[in-house]
Specification:
2 copies of one chain form a homodimer. The first copy, chain A, is an alpha/beta fold. Chain A folds into 3 domains: 5-48, 434 Repressor (Amino-terminal Domain) (Orthogonal Bundle); 58-158 and 294-319, Response regulator (Rossmann fold, 3-Layer(aba) Sandwich), CATH 3.40.50.2300; 161-292, Response regulator (Rossmann fold, 3-Layer(aba) Sandwich). Chain A has 12 helices and 12 strands. Chain A has helices at residues 5-12, 16-23, 31-43, 50-57, 73-88, 105-114, 129-138, 161-174, 194-206, 223-236, 248-260, 294-311; strands at 62-67, 92-97, 119-123, 141-145, 156-159, 180-185, 216-218, 242-245, 270-275, 288-291, 318-320, 323-325. In chain A, the strands form 2 sheets. A 6-stranded parallel β-sheet of chain A has the order 2-1-3-4-5-11, sandwiched between helices. A 6-stranded mixed β-sheet of chain A has the order 7-6-8-9-10-12, sandwiched between helices. In chain A, strand 6 (180-185), helix 9 (194-206) and strand 7 (216-218) form a beta-alpha-beta unit. The longest helix of chain A is centred in the last third of the chain and has 18 residues, at 294-311. Chain A is elongated, with a radius of gyration of 26 Å. Chain B binds a DNA duplex through residues 4-6, 14-18, 20-21, 24, 28-30, 33, 48-58.
Chain lengths: 334, 334
Amino acid sequence: MAATIKDIARVAGVSIATVSRVINNLGGYNEETEKKVLAVAKALEYRKNENARSLVQKSTKTIGVIMPEVTTAFYGDIIKGIEDVSYEHGYSVILTHAGMSGARIHESMNLMGERRVDGLIIVSVELHEAEIESLSSLGILFILLSTKTNREDTPYIKVDDFSAAYTAVNYLIENNHRIIGMAGANPDDSIAGSPRINGYIQALQDHSIKVDLNLIKAGDFSFESGKKAMQEFIEHHAEVTAVFCASDEAALGIISTCFENDLQVPKDISVVGYDNSKVSHMSIPPLTTVAQPLYEMGREGCLSLIASIQNKIKIESKVIPHELVIRKSVKKLS
Amino acid sequence: MAATIKDIARVAGVSIATVSRVINNLGGYNEETEKKVLAVAKALEYRKNENARSLVQKSTKTIGVIMPEVTTAFYGDIIKGIEDVSYEHGYSVILTHAGMSGARIHESMNLMGERRVDGLIIVSVELHEAEIESLSSLGILFILLSTKTNREDTPYIKVDDFSAAYTAVNYLIENNHRIIGMAGANPDDSIAGSPRINGYIQALQDHSIKVDLNLIKAGDFSFESGKKAMQEFIEHHAEVTAVFCASDEAALGIISTCFENDLQVPKDISVVGYDNSKVSHMSIPPLTTVAQPLYEMGREGCLSLIASIQNKIKIESKVIPHELVIRKSVKKLS
DNA sequence: TTGTAAGCGTTATCAA
DNA sequence: TTGATAACGCTTACAA
């Protein structure tokens, strides 16, 4: 079907080697042959076969990305960062999701192996010993984004969830809040759950505020878990003046339930979210929230990976700084 | 580095042909050799090279996806549909974005061509004559999602934006609204802009309501364009009782500005959005909005494409039904 | 400056 | 049931 360098060679009356040289701009041929080859290539609508080239070069110029099922703007931003950098460096990205709580993770890794991606980026998936094992056995360079493992040798880029949560709660305390609830975090999630809860606790303790475990409402980071938490605060802990949420969506849930119960944010209750997702500035009131630089995370991760591929250097893990984006959902108490 | 079938053949003492047969479960070998080959393959941690296979089979089992720069949950859902179907059929998806208003579209298509994807899905990108031309010249099967061209022969799947807008406005009219504004649509966008505006106009006309072009506030589907539109309504058209928005984000902008001006939704003003994005049920009040079945669109599109690849049949364009999701942002006037 | 030919890891044809 | 071998489209010594 499509023309190959053989076709060009035949039509142009040169060898395939020469065609290859011209196509790849390698030099070492006179202008005349170059012109002829280029003309024929154009006439035949030649398009190089990246696959065949990969085979001999033993490099596919491809980055694999594995992420969880969830489809939020969160991943969109990271992907965009990855794709931009890949594009700039002549790499393509091949994408797969690992299924709810990583059910499909092994198939995903296998697929990436068979496709011979040059590097692998795993986003937000919690990896256990078995997965790390098969990941290493793939023999493919990889980096984790927004997640990590308990092994030293697995490189990652993420923010420090503990200290980000600490910052957020500290901000509430600075605004004179003393009875602060927490909502939306899953304590069994050792990446995004427990560290944020611990950050919350530490901030309170550092200010000599007694920690009341009843004020920590577990959840799954969802809007609904925020709603439910606020319902419980209203029923049993009317004394709460502020809530720190483990996600923006949970924060919106808090606000929504407040609204239904005629409580005003931030007048009656203050709220801080986590993610700085697109919705956080669309809410009423605009949400004060912890920002993770997602796009940059995607970029940086992909950049490190490609550098590592090209220079065969080890990837350094990196904790990137978070930021508290202050909008209008927190009231300063006097 | 990684073991090949040659290595297996050598170690197992059989020919590479036999190894290939065993690996691919083709039958025609006795149990003993099968066991031996499988054992050696395992021992050597053999992993097939999908690339090499692609070369001889002239099929990469790969679907290319091109979409615009924008990173919203909108695309996430579509991608997920595509990826799920691909996965189920043993295809991989390779993703690229075409840049702001398609700036990178040619490079993207080129890339997909060089990667020899078996099929191509283009999401939401407006295609002009030049692009369609080079798309056809690629000789790759493709389908458009949530967009179309003015040519008969380019298959697409999308909802009918005109009639979806009509439905939304009609609903407002049924609720006895007579002075209805429109916000957020870009009239120059022939896919998602003008058809929605026209649907709005037609619905009014069919109910003998005079169309006031001043009530149509153009925009770019963003939160900000919604805010701006509402500001203008408040200043110049206080008589407006309802606003139809070309996106949920614009609708949130409307609500936000209303809130700042002490107008309550839906008590003082009713709002209908478009997209049924995740935020639409998180807003205050929950948003009545037009739903496009994004995930299904991704699935169906990918399904048609793969069917077309495998059976060499032509892809039929399809207009899929929209739905009006009724929540709480519209008030019935008496 | 150009061509010949080997080889990348497979599949597939044909013969044994 | 098995094995040789050509082929897929390309890059890259090496030779001319």
